[in-house]
Amino acid sequence: MPSLYRDFETQAQIDAQYNPALKLPDITAPGRHYAQQSALARAQLRGVLDVPYGPTLAETLDIFPADLPGAPVFVFLHGGYWRALSSKDFSCIALGLQPLGIITVVVNYALCPWVTIDEITRQVRAAVAWTHRNIAQFGGNPARVALGGHSAGGHLTAMCLQTRWHDDYGLPQDPLAAAVLVSGIYDIAPLRYSYLQPMIQLDEGIIRRNSPLFSVRPCATPIWVNWGDEESAEFARQASSFHQAWLAVGNRSELSALPQADHYRAIHGFEHADSPLCQWLAHQLAV
Q: Taking CA 167 as the corner, what is the angle to CA 165 and CA 170, rounded to the nearest 5 degrees?
């Protein structure tokens, strides 16, 4: 039997690696956690919600300011395999960062199949550019902006790192102070043969344009590529492959597994100021 991707011959084999919900005893538990913690964040923290950054209704930001002016900024791109969830599910990212004096910007974007991954990539790049141009109005320092994301958001973070910021947006070529990529997928080709295909509708062009593993450029932004140590071998391989590609062109990257974390718990650290995720960002942003 010919392989579909690497040594995978069937959809079931690919799904076993790329569908983290298959291992959950309760598939609703991660969503409940995000929703509850995000409601807590909106109740406890000052927030400016649904700020438009682009022309469509989906293009909005939720901003959680810091207490002091001139604060560093973290822009977060959520997961959901490009076809689920919204910024409101991830207000919780601000819980660990606000006490450290970091502004959190949670990006909303349109979802597949109503738009393509090409369009989602355009939207999140526009959100990053908007943040650089406008975050000073919310007490942020545009020279100290970090970017990060989880799962599909990790992929989108990598896509943002490939952006021609100077040519396309009139920004410095490397405008990001740091980036953290959690449980991302950097070669999206296997997903064409997965349970996701009816929703994300990949074709050869979309795969080629949106597999950042194969288009890494020299970039001054230091990154940390990580995944949960309880995730599948493919999530670990994808992370390691992107880390190696980033280093191969002379860039700076750290690589590590997050302990005692499955795919969904991998970002729980953002809810706690003393976690490795929050402390790494605080160090990179010189908090």
A: 65
Distances (CA, A) of 156 to 8, 117, 260: 25, 9, 25
Q: Which two tokens stand for residue 278?
A: 């929050």
Bridge partners of 257?
A: 227
CATH fold of 11-284 reads Rossmann fold (3.40.50)
pLDDT by 10-residue block (mean), the chain, 287 residues:
92 98 96 98 98 98 97 98 98 98 98 98 98 98 98 98 98 98 98 98 98 98 98 98 98 98 98 98 92
Q: Cβ atoms within 10 A of the Cβ of 203, count? A: 9
Whether the CB-CB separation of 180 and 281 falls below 8 Å is answered with yes
Length of the chain: 287
Structure tokens, 86: 């919204």
∠ CA 166-59-269, nearest 5°, is 85
Contact 74, 128 (CB under 8 A): no
